[in-house]
Amino acid sequence: xxxIGVGIQGAGGASDKLIAPFHFALNSCFxxxxxxxxxxxxxxxxxxxVRVSGPFADFGSEGAERxxxxxxxxxxxxxDLVVPQHRWxxxxxDEFRTYLMSGVRDCFEMCVAKAIKAKELLDEPRLRxxxxxxxxxxxxxxxxxDVFTKPNAKVIFDEMKTQAEAKGLDLSDEQIKExxxxxxxxx
Length: 187
Fold this sequence. Notes:
single chain; about 190 residues; alpha/beta; about 50% helix
């Protein structure tokens, strides 16, 4: 089961290039890692929407905000992580990584606190250990490491295949690849 899914809303320019490797890394370590256990009673996982201000949009704040339980089936805890332009502009890879991962940890802790309050947690020690393993993987990786440069293609493909089967579709591998290119699948 995933721990955290991460989506990115960039505001153009250099911010998009800077955040893309972290988008790969966060989802590789926290979402697509199939070694994770089942942590929650009814929620599926935590969701972090990283909103990066830049030349075409200013999201007007900074840090973790707007924690809520989604209404989907199954529900998730979703939270925004807002990154102002001055935090990434001119920052080195390592400086930005430290800043971003501190925000990810803040989001994680806020979601865990909400899950504890709602009596949602099944295995808090394992959740924390698995989060910490992914966190350290990102913090210790070289910027050219696969975790930053390549999404886990096999896992993404398997997820698309699962989605197709859940929709009652019997599709060939080529059809699934074409549907991914057209944005039909979530992954």
